[in-house]
Input
Amino acid sequence: QADGAAALAAQEALPFPGAARAKLHATAGVTGSLHTGTECKVVDKWHPSWPAVAGTYVYIHNAFRNHLDHIINLHKKDRLPEAAVNLDTWLDILNLHVKVEDELFMPALTARGFKVPDYIHEGHERLENAAKKARAELLEGGGRAELAATRVALFQHLHEEELVILPAMVKHFT
Output
């Protein structure tokens, strides 16, 4: 639990707008509605490239948000074996997603003259580390704080990608 609390505290030190960070913490683990859409206002659903580029990207991001919230709810209901299986699946899919971004999308953006900010790559590492800690604690019967820290890392990272990478993809891939 102490490591999970430390991971959560470490997230506080990350550069993230205060209001958005407060929103993440206020809703950590709270479900009842599905995540839809995006906070990115540079590109909206009326953009001609939305279905091909943005719509798919946002859909996948929301799938990660919704699945992690489902895992947190399983944990809250003490359904730890089911939460662990779901977290394994979530991690497998996340690793594939990160691989596609790191090996396909980011190099393609770079080749087109876009400088991918370092915090995007660092966000992948923070998210992976947080999720691995959550998985280890879940196996020991804990993991609540670590899942919350994973949620903060995920939401921060996806928010950053949607505000920076999403508009770059629309600009450079259309």
The helical segments are 2-12, 18-26, 50-76, 80-111, 118-139, 144-173.
